[in-house]
């Protein structure tokens, strides 16, 4: 299992957005490139990049910057989310070096597009899903999908990985609860990455103690800008893998 830092980019700057509200953001670093350089020096091998501008506009935006990052750090795998609403948009990210293309939850309602992108980019498509109590919601009035069943369908369709967020119930704290994500990671062959909402090392320790050995990775975002030491977090992961 690896730790995957989340880099959210808006107007070329590294930001932190509030969950499901890309318009509410805080600039945490003026130079996003420098953030990646620092993470690279700590041994990061994979990044989850969110083009916040692309989510807002519906098409790739921070293309030059993300291409610059890939060129400078070719050994880091980039999985890029944002603005993939057609095959042509997917080609834009692929052409600047994105290793994996991340489609958001709308992809499950646009299966023809998902199929087309999987055909054009075999072994490179991930899907991001939000779940609550084992269900993946859709638009109001539409039936929800059962998470494990949907994961298996997506795997059959050619998706090669999932990025999953467990949404806490109203009044719940969420945090390090990954019960449903761990369950699907045990029942599909493709990699599953959990949006972990880790805030401190104690949260990471709790996750590592909860039989998460099948998880491929944990996404970490805000905590890395709020004082969590990436080196210490990686050391903790290695410690549990060695036991």
Automatic annotation (TrEMBL):
Signal peptide (from-to): none
Key word Metal-binding present: no
Highest taxon above the source species: Bacteria
Annotated pathway: Amino-acid biosynthesis
Pfam families referenced in this protein's UniProt entry, alphabetically: His_biosynth
Keyword terms, alphabetized: Amino-acid biosynthesis, Histidine biosynthesis
GO cellular component, one term: cytoplasm
GO biological processes: L-histidine biosynthetic process; L-tryptophan biosynthetic process
UniProt keyword Cell membrane, yes or no: no
Single GO MF annotation: 1-(5-phosphoribosyl)-5-[(5-phosphoribosylamino)methylideneamino]imidazole-4-carboxamide isomerase activity
Family note: Belongs to the HisA/HisF family.
Protein name stated in the entry: 1-(5-phosphoribosyl)-5-((5-phosphoribosylamino)methylideneamino)imidazole-4-carboxamide isomerase
The species this protein was found in: Aliikangiella coralliicola
